[in-house]
Design brief:
about 450 residues, alpha/beta, 12 helices
Length: about 450
């Protein structure tokens, strides 16, 4: 399984590099007009590569399962954020280099007197700055997620469209049918992606609604929403995966939010999402009513025991509501009567806030499971682990017969906890390929 995923991952990396460099490759082929100095050609090359990278951002966020399978959605979204900054730097370098080596180009910044090709290019760059800035400081600016997401999509589409118009109007490197075909193909590809994301896929989801069966309160200011497919077969998923939920709106509204599935993968007639109250949307979850229709887009994610059938045993490390995908895995293992050894380290602030506390006790009777609770502020008389999941605790918990590629470790919780646990595992000699993380904040 791991070898297959590695090969798939390498394949998609090569495809990404090829598509990114294809405009540059064609730029260097054929006959180009003479008399262009090196720095002008170099700036154009950087711009082309940056533009191709920006266009591929639409692919990264289009939720193609085969593309995300080798890496996991959280890694893809992290790559999306980081590569956006690199693409922005490359695109910004294009005019800066031109200005540095020929001050005459500064006149093109005057949108009143500049030709249309320059107006399109400058407008694309300004809008790109807005896209990057609003994405980096959305939370600090307290911009509503749904409003930001809609604006992000509109602005990104305008950026790529204006940049393509700039390339076509300059008409310097589209002087052959093959080069023109390349950029027309890029344009049609982006339009097709937009149609898929904004029209076709929402229409498919609209025809496959889910119905709320019940909403159950859990410990830790958390709610479990039980759903059943309405007039369709539902979805098959691996334990530990997540789905995007749309409630009080249609799939066309762009008002969806990602949540881990907490139910067993062996039960396809119903599906559960366990959601902690964090923001405006999650605070409304308890207000869902039985019979109400919602929509699910999924499943997604690579955080699953089913990707590691070879494992001798599993170690789960959860913090707070990070227990949700792990609960799906434990419930699935129980339904399969899987008796491989399991260890759960579960960190919470208080004992009363331990979500699924009673069910975890019961699962220890069904599974070969050892649960270790770590409480930051324990009650009087507490005899268990206190504080946080430390390196010393991990070293004590790690099985004596731990061997590389035999025990798989799953980590889910707040970012600070996960970073600390990953660092500690590396220090005590756990191979990085043996631990897997699921991060909540995809946006």
């Amino acid at each position: 399984m791991k070898i297959k995923l590695i090969l798939q991952g390498a394949f998609w990396v090569m495809i990404y590099i090829f598509i990114t460099l294809l405009p540059l490759i064609l730029l260097l082929t054929g006959d180009n007009p003479p008399g262009r100095e090196f720095w002008r050609e170099f700036s154009v090359a950087l711009g082309f590569v940056g533009l191709a990278m920006m266009a591929l951002q639409f692919v990264l966020t289009a939720r193609f399962r085969r593309l995300k399978a080798p890496y996991g959605s959280d890694i893809i979204y992290h790559f999306h954020r980081q590569i956006s900054l690199i693409a922005f730097a490359l695109i910004l370098s294009h005019p800066i280099i031109l200005f540095l080596f020929n001050a005459e180009y500064l006149k093109l910044l005057n949108l009143i007197t500049a030709p249309w090709r320059a107006r399109a290019g400058v407008s694309a760059l300004v809008l790109l700055m807005f896209v990057i800035g609003l994405s980096l400081w959305r939370k600090q600016l307290k911009i509503d997620y749904t409003a930001w997401r809609i604006g992000h999509g509109v602005l990104a589409t305008l950026v790529v469209s204006l940049a393509l118009i700039h390339v076509m109007l300059v008409n310097y490197y589209v002087n052959t049918p093959l080069k023109r075909l390349l950029w027309v193909g890029y344009g049609l590809f982006w339009i097709s992606l937009l149609l898929w994301v904004r029209v076709i896929k929402p229409f498919i989801l609209l025809r496959k609604p889910y119905e709320v069966v019940q909403v159950n309160p859990e410990r830790g200011n958390t709610w479990t929403v039980v759903l059943k497919p309405k007039n369709h077969r539902g979805m098959r998923f691996m334990p530990g995966q997540f789905t995007w939920l749309t409630a009080w709106a249609s799939p066309f509204s762009d008002a969806e939010h990602p949540f881990s599935i907490s139910s067993s993968a062996e039960k396809s007639d119903q599906l559960s999402l366990t959601i902690k109250e964090f923001g405006d949307f999650t605070r409304r979850i308890k207000d869902l009513k039985p019979g109400q229709e919602v929509y699910l887009d999924g499943p997604f994610g690579s955080f699953s025991i089913d990707r590691h059938p070879h494992a001798k045993g599993f170690i789960f490390i959860a913090g707070g509501v990070g227990i949700t995908p792990i609960m799906s895995m434990l419930r699935t293992l129980a339904d399969r009567n899987d008796q491989r050894p399991l260890i759960l380290l579960y960190a919470n602030k208080t004992w009363d806030g331990v979500t699924f506390r009673e069910e975890l006790d019961a699962l220890q009777q069904k599974l070969n499971l050892k649960v270790i609770h770590v409480i930051e502020s324990p009650p009087d008389g507490w005899k268990g682990e206190r504080g946080y999941v430390t390196q010393e605790l991990l070293a004590r918990t790690l099985p004596a017969d731990y061997q590389r590629n035999r025990w798989e470790i799953f980590i889910c919780g707040p970012d600070a906890m996960m970073n600390s646990v990953e660092n500690s595992l590396s220090k005590i000699g756990v191979w990085i390929g043996d631990f897997h993380s699921e991060r909540f904040y995809l946006v």
